[in-house]
Design a protein that fits this description.
Elements: E1 5-9, H1 22-25, E2 35-40, E3 44-49, H2 50-55, E4 65-69, E5 72-73, E6 76-78, E7 82-87, E8 98-104, E9 112-114, E10 131-138, H3 152-155, E11 160-163, E12 168-173, E13 184-189, E14 192-194, E15 201-206, E16 209-216, H4 217-220, E17 225-230, E18 238-245, E19 251-254, E20 256-264, E21 271-276, E22 283-287, E23 294-301, E24 304-307, E25 313-316, E26 319-323, E27 330-336, E28 345-348, E29 363-367, H5 385-397, E30 401-405, H6 406-413, H7 420-433, E31 440-444, E32 467-473, E33 478-484, E34 504-508, H8 513-526, H9 529-534, E35 538-542, H10 546-559, E36 565-569, H11 578-591, E37 595-599, E38 602-603, E39 606-607, E40 617-618, H12 619-623, E41 632-636, E42 646-647, E43 650-651, H13 655-661, E44 668-671, H14 678-694, H15 700-710, E45 727-729, H16 741-744, E46 748-749, E47 756-759, E48 764-767, E49 770-771, E50 779-783, E51 789-791, E52 797-800, E53 810-818, E54 823-833, E55 841-845, E56 867-868, E57 877-881, E58 886-890, E59 897-899, E60 910-918, E61 927-931, E62 936-941, E63 948-954, E64 960-965, ...
Parallel strand pairs: 29-30, 29-31, 31-34, 35-36, 35-37, 37-41, 41-44, 47-54
Antiparallel strand pairs: 1-6, 1-9, 2-8, 2-28, 3-7, 4-5, 4-8, 6-7, 10-20, 11-19, 12-18, 13-17, 13-20, 14-19, 15-16, 15-18, 21-27, 22-26, 23-24, 23-27, 25-26, 32-33, 38-39, 39-40, 42-43, 44-45, 46-49, 48-52, 50-53, 51-52, 53-54, 55-69, 56-59, 57-58, 58-69, 59-68, 60-65, 60-69, 61-62, 61-68, ...
Helix pairs in contact: 5-8, 6-7, 10-14, 14-15
Amino acid sequence: MSKKILILFVILALTINFFSDLSVNFATAESANPLLKISTSKEGFHKITFEELVAKGFRTDVLNVKLSNKGQEVPFSIDNNALVFYAEKISSLNTSQNVYFLEQINSGDIGNAIINKADLSLMSPTLFSNSYLEKTHFEENKFYNFNLKNGIGRDHFFWSSFSYPKNFKFDFVLKNMDYSNPNSKIILKTIRFDTNKVSAYFDVYLNGRIIKENVLENQIYNNQFLEINFNTELLKAQNSLEIKLENSGNTLYLDNFDLYYPRNIILDSGQKYFTFNALNEAGFKIISGLRQNFDIFQVTSNTEITKIDEADVKIVEDGLLFASDNMNDRKYHLIFEDNYLIPDNISLIEQNNFYNNPLGADYIIISHPDLMEFTEDKSLKSGSDILRLKEYREFNDNFVVNVYTVTEIYNKYNFGIKDPQAIKSFLSDAYYNWQIKPKYLLLIGNTTFDPKNHLKTEIKDYIPTIYDYFPVKDFQNDTEYELPDDELFSDFVVENKNTTGEIITGRFPVINKDELHNIVEKIFVFESDFYADVVKKNVFNLSAQSPYVDLLEPTIKAYLPESYGYFKNSPEMFENSISAARADFIEKMNLGQMIVNYIGHGHIDSWNGIFYKAAYLDNNHVYSLKNTQYPILLSLNCFGGLYNTVNSSGIISSIAEKFLNVENGSVASIGFPGLAISPDAEQIEKFLYKFIFEEKDKYLGEVIQKIRKNIPPDSNKGNYLKTTNFTYFGDPALNLKAFYPENFAKPEWITHIADQEIIAGNSFAFKVEASDNYGNQINYFIENIPSDASFNEETGEFFWTPAVSQIDQTFEIIFKASNGIHEISQSAQFLVKAPLQLGKKILDLNFDEKEGLQNFFDISESKNNPKCYPNADFCPLSGIITLKSLGVYFNNIYKLLIVDSNESLNSDYITVFARINPDKIEDHRYQLVVTKKLNFELAVNANPLRRAFRFGVITEDGVRTVYNKFLAINPGEWNDVAFTYDGEYLKAYVNGNLVQSIAKQGKIKKTNDAVTIGGYYNGGFGYIGKIDDVKIFDYALSEEEIKELSK
């Protein structure tokens, strides 16, 4: 046996936190130490060489590492420049991949303990046994049915479904059986009857002899397994297990069975393991004709592993003898040194640079990394569809959009192991803890009921879903269906069948990037202004049976505007010709439709009538569509929205999915994952048309959520699946302006002016802005303007310096905006107040330190000297020549200065001034110049297309008021930027000139956070460029004082 050192670390009960707190910024946080993720689907002892670790980027002292699984540290050994560890088989419905994390630790953090070797004296060979009770498992992945509970179909498929008079029979061969002991047992697992007969029963035969008879349904219904002990002699060659149903009309489902039989211990090659039990007396006799080095391990649990010392193994003529320190519940592994297992995957956990907002997001995108495109620094690649969609929503809807890979969510919330509950935990954390609470969720990637790929297809389970069970009264029996339900991802309040998720959820059920591109392109076209001008205003009501069309027609027409065309279609309209009806459907689709709704019979991938042999429409026909106007599709047939189906040939997309994923088809789809009847469809149709055409909701996701909440709980009368259990495929924030452009032609205020107090002697300026979404010229008007104020009717800019004589007077001013078609107005009252009492300067950094110096000084009386964070290696470059003297240069996003928290940094009001020269950058991210964890912030966007200046505060009410002034600064040049807040107004200045004034009342929120210059911790929103001066005052300077600073 080879000499090896075995190491066991103290087992921790605490969960290992691989990333920093998500409430700060999950996507851009990273572990302080290198972290290696090791995945394996195999049970047994694995070996990874040091060369492999280094090749994966894990450059560390292997003696100062820890290995963990599911939050617990597990033992490992060092063997000839290789890491050896034991991996157990994972028990999971969603994956066969167990995950281990290897992390570097600081020397001395945790003491290393050597695994105790077995210190056992060899006993007399007469006490050793050469057999054990072998557990042999038999299963076959043949049968999946979604009306069987407990996730059986996702763990492994049912073996068999058989009905009277057909019986179940399976032949099997046993190896190395010890025929001296006939005692054995069989456990039949997850047996389920499907019967209406109270007296249903079956018999079990082994090799033609009955071993259990008259097994009644009530004997196996609750625990769904049956254990049979027997002493019938098993055969040396072929054996046969047979189950016979004894009643007509019965069906029996069998999941798997285990056979326990006495087996000789024979070691011939590879890696063997067996469990010791009472069959043995005091030790083992291993029959082996091979003479080479091998190891013997005793595995008590995943965290308790002992190596059998070579001194306690005796080589005898026909094999090996060794003893055990406990005669029960031990698993033994015997391994030839060249037969250690290799992990399926080894990868270094690296930081993603998605520029996610640390305070949260309005809109969350979760995608599988295989559907994403990255740059070398792990950013989203420019031009990739997910980045395009993110930037589109940010620009067009003013959303904060955060993007995450599903893998990093597994790492953070489930120890790297794939599980949809990890996604739910992440969303719950975001919903309850983020300052910006998520409203929309987009899942990008398909799912399948075969996540472990038993069918051996190329289809991946990209974004798994959560399954729910729904009681169903179908045409014959009461049963339950297990169906996918994405709503449960954000069902945080009560998990039952009457709730709706807290976050509006949509899914792109794509299997590749081409399908993703199709959907994104259709969204951009659907929401474009030219599309809204040219679309044909039609809706299409169709079915394979005319009664369903007639049923929905009054509901649709009750809400449909007169300007809309109405089409309908059924085979009866074409002398029962399916082909003629289909041709008419394709013609009308290519003509242009806004909504297409199918109701009636169908299946997963087709619409069809019960009286027709051919499908009215199936997925192959969807591929042939040439429409360039993309409707919202309602596929309200049974299983038309079942989105987890796969067979041995690959994915079976539901017809609702297929309409969305193809190049033409629909821009969004709705479908039932289970059974549906016409009253269900009528409810959905009614509310869809009502909320789109009558209430004119802006986003389709909001329509979907309102439908779920407005359908009466008893709408399906308990006969079928809950009506609200329909699936939405599409963007949850799909803009519906194409349905009523005349509504969007009405101007809407972009800025809203509130009643406020203003200070006499201070200049007060702001700009009212409105838009009609079509880019029409907006003209502005004003009423009751003070005589000493000015207003520009073309730009909406207002300017006023109230006189001292106007103190305590109130002025009501009315602002109006018109695009020549519609006019809107708003008014506000302005109370002139006396000037506020002045305060003091709390930070003054002139950065006059000479080149190479790493100590910086605050020349104000507060003496808030900054320091480089986290150490001197992250100092900006000092001694940089500026316009007036010296300055510093932040030459990468990780350079950071920090002023430790103290009471002087907490003020009710503030002025922040900085003289900056930012480098030009190509991306659109904002760079923090000065901030106190966003309680106040001064940032810039140095992209030449934006040239933006951002300023804002968080007040005591928790509201963050922030504004982006575009085209305000010049990257590559010196700019004086400042903002003031006096409890009434937030004002921004560039080069001494007032450029924006926003009304906001309240005091700034006080916290214990530090002030940072040049970015945020860990490179978040890092500033790149030069800084000559930073000043902070605990009061709002006047416009004249700001001008003086900029001289």
